[in-house]
Amino acid sequence: MRCFMDDRDFLLSTATGEELFHTYAEGLPIVDYHCHISPQEIWEDRRYGNICQVWLGGDHYKWRLMRANGVDERYITGDAPDREKFQKWAETLTRCVGNPVYEWSHLELKRYFGYEGVLNASTAQEVWDLTSAKLADPSMSCRNLVARSNVRLICTTDDPADDFGWHRKLAADDSFGVKVVPAMRPDAALRIERGEESRAYLGRISEAAGMPVTSFAELCAAISARYDVAHELGCRASDHALDYVMFEPATADEVEAVFARAAAGEPVTGVEVLQYKTALMEFLASEYVRLGWVMQLHFGCKRDNNRRMFAKLGPDTGYDCVSDHTPADQLADFLDAVDENGGLPKTILYSLNPNDNVVIDTVMGCFQEGPVAGKMQNGSAWWFNDNECGMREQLTALANEGVLGTFVGMLTDSRSFLSYPRHEYFRRVLCGLVGEWVEAGKYPRDMGALGSIVSDISYGNAVRYFGFDLPVA
What we know:
This protein is of the alpha/beta class. The protein is 49% helix and 7% strand. The strands form 3 sheets. The chain has a 4-stranded parallel sheet, covered by helices on one side. The protein has a 3-stranded parallel sheet with strand order 1-2-3. Strand 2, helix 9 (165-171) and strand 3 form a beta-alpha-beta unit. Helix 11 (196-209) packs across helix 12. The radius of gyration is 23 Å and the shape is globular. The chain starts with 14 loop residues before the first helix and ends in a 7-residue tail after the last helix. 44% of the residues are buried.
């Protein structure tokens, strides 16, 4: 029997997997090409007073588990003291056998705090005292946590109507050796169905771009202008959070009419909303071709399901779920229309529904083309799926239907500065799986070829794919 989270060979069950991880993957840098870390906190080099602030301040993964364990909301998002909240988390974690958050939590305790024990109700005070003492050290500030995690580049998530002030400051700061660049998420521009919220956004983007936005064409021009500014700050990717990838084509005049009615506060139909969103997404895809950016599409999620708690806490608080409405025909038709009308940008497709892996792999196979290796990507197992089972399923489906060796690998999709052990977790899963295939006789034990595949997926492919100005290991 192996020891709990065996520090050397955790998740590695074969000699080949062990060699792949320790020789080719373990020491590689990290490119975090999609996350929700705050550029302001990086600029200010935020420090944390205790482990609760680091772990429970905005982590809806942990909040969901605490609710499922019967913990009162006061100890989750309420006004309970941090030490009491941490105690409730420790009590919850004990019962989370098989959950990846159990493993991530202990990896973070090992890697950042040197704690080799097990967090539970009886050790909570010990862990609290150890982590509090460590966090009091200046070396545990945000910037230092990122640097010691061997991170080379971070793409934050930013709206084109933002002023990019924190990114400007970071770009001018030579004291921090990690590149921090924006990634555009223009979701607010798509939400025409949200009435006053949508109309308020038109004012924001108009002010940011310094031009009027009274038509769909002017909205597109304003976004384009803000994209140019983001590009100068190092942006090389967009990201879109969609319910599903829609395709409801309309003429330019029809789209302008829909925009005009919505901007005037008049009702628009469901079909008209889809026509508007389709047209805007087609325009945005053309912008990504113009700028050479990667288009990331996240879909398959049904958000804010608990209306009572949404009214109390707002979005991103742990009340989202997998959606099974992810129509492959509309995804394929959207990609086809974009390809026909100016070409497809490099595109990463992520579905929250794990049943969509083969769908994504077969759809994207219709649009692969040189000279870009892996121009179309099935994105890393996401959110509810970024666990060992989800990662194995995504990697296996991609290997079965495409070219695994061109995969751009892992991202954190996190708001936490302690989340980088997720890259280690992913690399262990990757090496473990490939090692099993080799030792089952499914691929020769050619360590040169295997090492190249593993190191590329872990780091090199992302650098080349996004065009980041970084050395390729």
